[in-house]
Design a protein that fits this description.
CATH superfamily: Ribonuclease H-like superfamily/Ribonuclease H
Number of domains: 1
Shape: globular
Distance between the termini: 58 Å
CATH topology: Nucleotidyltransferase, domain 5
Structural class: alpha/beta
CATH architecture: 2-Layer Sandwich
Length: 190
């Protein structure tokens, strides 16, 4: 499975692509950070991110895109910009029929370090070890993008099993309700 990991942001948007292998084996294929000047208009910044992400998707052909879920931030403007960048990325993936999954920072940290409260230095150290990189990825947005992709690769089997279980439960519920309805109809028939 080829996963594009994205650490969304307006000023710095981390992008990565990794390929999963057997078990927990993962290989980094590419990593970069898209930067947009803070004094540029919002629409132009989002366009720059969109154009770059679309180029990456067309070049690397990911099977899935893993994006960091924005759920809280002390700075409302930062949270809004991050959510807008994430939305542009999710839209680009949807246009190409690529599945999108969102992961919280604590999910990602727990997946790669075993600790959902790990700091950025711990995440970067583990990413460097997991991917057998010669040097630590910088800036932190690059490491975070790699961590998101790894997190999704390692969680994808569980996500698939949960989706299959939910689909089976929904089908069983429909079957049960249809049988109940059939019994009610047969009881009310003269």
């Amino acid at each position: 499975m080829r996963v594009m990991g994205v650490d969304p942001g307006l000023t710095r948007c981390g992008l990565s692509v990794i390929q999963s292998g057997r078990g927990r084996q993962v290989t980094a294929l590419d990593v970069d950070v898209v930067r947009t000047p803070s004094d540029d208009p919002l629409a132009l910044r989002l366009l720059t991110i969109s154009d770059t992400v679309e180029h990456w998707m067309d070049t690397h052909l990911p099977d899935v895109v893993a994006i960091e879920r924005v759920f809280a931030n002390n700075n409302a403007n930062t949270a809004m910009g991050t959510a807008q960048a994430g939305g542009v990325i999710a839209l680009a993936a949807a246009k190409r029929g690529i599945d999108v999954h969102f992961h919280t920072p604590s999910e990602v940290k727990a997946a790669v370090t075993g600790n959902g409260r790990a700091d950025k230095a711990q995440v970067t150290t583990m990413i460097t070890k997991i991917l057998a990189l010669q040097a630590k990825p910088t800036p932190a947005d690059a490491a975070d993008a790699l961590a998101l992709a790894i997190c999704h690769c390692w969680r994808a089997p569980m996500i698939a099993r949960m989706a299959a279980a939910e689909a089976l439960a929904a089908e069983q519920k429909r079957t049960y309700q249809a049988r109940l309805k059939a019994k009610q109809v047969s009881r009310s028939a003269p």
